[in-house]
Amino acid sequence: MVRAAVLPAVGAPLEIAEIDLPDPGPGQVRIRLAAAGVCHSDLSLSNGTMRVPVPAVLGHEGAGTVVAVGEGVTHVSPGAFVILNWAPSCGTCHACTLGEVWLCANALNGAADVYAHRASDGSDLHPGLNVAAFAEETVVSASCVLPLPEGIPLTDAALLGCAVLTGYGAIHHSARVREGETVAVFGVGGVGLSTLQSARIAGATTIVAVDVSPEKEELARAAGATDYVVASENTAREIRALTGRQGVDVAVECVGRAVTIRTAWESTRRGGRTTVVGIGGKDQQVTFNALELFHWGRTLSGCVYGNSDPAKDVPVLAEHVRAGRLDLGALVTERIALEGIPAAFENMVAGKGGRALVVF
Fold first, then answer.
1. Bond before 13 cis per omega within 30 degrees
2. Cross-strand bridge partners of residue 125
3. Which residues pair with 268 in a beta bridge?
4. pTM
5. pLDDT along the chain (360 residues), means of 10
6. Whole-angstrom Cα distance, residue 192 to residue 351?
């Protein structure tokens, strides 16, 4: 038996409970978690903004050590350090055949599986976004397991599984920021901080961080922001003032709110690019008129998982970490136990801190 944070129903408080995990079957791997990041997507799953079968063990950003492998698993073995990939590509759907593995139609099929049971009553449990990282141990499909490159601290490596892949991919794959361009990042949480570091790595010059909290300025500047703007109705005007009244080349929205998406779009220059990373609810409606779309010539695009291929991008990120260009530890503002996850959710809602990391 292992301890886990269980979501009994949508909108219900998380419960710390003991669960029974099976031995890994064919094509499966059992992992002892070293750490799991608390992502805004976990909050969205718990409150119903995103839907998964419940009861479930949430948590999708994790790293740990292989305990056992099932029949047919050859790319990892017991004792290996690994990262969890919550959105594995099937390789055969239309998106995968186009090379757009981040849009795989079958990536989340495993979330409907029964992967474990409550120890108290034997009731079924689902694995959240495939990997159920809010637990001391988990059993996952081998396709959800990536070997951890050498030289990366195991605990901090958990962040590579979502926040860093998303932020890095938003800059390098979606917006395709070029050296010398200007960038604005809306939302200074775990993904926003990763995006700021990635903009710096890409060679952006002016890097503007935007957040509702004045207290996040130090975090943002440490990650690479050259300027900091406290969000208000004048945000777009302030950003244009910082860029010769032109607006930035690229804006990355990491919040998922209609007003923030609209402001990010208005903050870019004529012909600029806005990438939306934040996950908002269906009630968040963004409107544009036909004339302004024509006149400004801007591009607005969604970005799923950083438009990344984890198998290809994790080794690249690891090299940035080893070279000192990417600081994983700087993204973490709180290290907590399983019991601290509800408070971490509350901090997200209140706009406090960067990434909270559950350390086992």
1. no
2. 116
3. 248
4. 0.96
5. 96 95 97 97 90 94 98 98 97 97 96 95 95 98 97 96 97 98 97 98 98 96 98 97 97 97 98 96 93 97 96 97 96 97 93 95
6. 12
